[in-house]
Write a structure and sequence with these properties.
Blueprint (H helix, E strand, L loop, with lengths): L1 H28 L7 H12 L2 E8 L2 H14 L1 H4 L3 E9 L2 E9 L4 H13 L5 E4 L3 E2 L1
Antiparallel strand pairs: 1-3, 1-4, 2-3, 2-5
Length: 134
């Protein structure tokens, strides 16, 4: 009976050793591909972008600035502590400027903010807090 228990333990030990050896040889046969500089930079940039919201699209940076002044005047408590930026882009063949507000701690917080300002009649979608500072 002693021999049978010893045999089981020996079989388990050998199996674990073989399994570990197989896993190690598989890791060595498939070396990890190092990130290129551009891939590393893109990943770092994506992580560095803070959550924000977009509060509308306007035809000129001047209109964006005027809208920020109106919003700050009409909703000072709601917008307290937020910064504003605008992001130029093409939309259906027209150059437009998106008004961005932020930064927020996370996209959950940005989404909650959008729900509040939508009830006030303001357009709002979550978006990265990027663009030129106003």
């Amino acid at each position: 009976m002693h021999f049978s228990i010893f045999s089981k333990y020996l079989l388990i030990a050998i199996s674990l050793t073989v399994l570990t050896a197989c896993m190690m040889s598989q890791e060595h046969s498939q070396p990890e591909q190092p990130f290129t500089h551009s891939q590393s930079a893109a990943i770092a940039a994506a992580k560095a972008v803070e959550p924000g919201v977009q509060l509308g699209l306007y035809l000129t940076p001047t209109k964006v600035s005027h809208r920020v002044l109106e919003l700050k005047r009409d909703y000072p408590d709601v917008l307290h502590g937020l910064d504003f930026r605008f992001k130029k882009r093409e939309h259906k063949g027209v150059t437009v400027y998106g008004l961005r507000a932020g930064p927020f701690t996370n996209y959950t917080q940005a989404t909650a903010f959008c729900e509040i300002v939508k009830k006030l009649g303001q357009t709002c979608v979550t978006a990265p807090f990027v663009g030129q500072v106003l």
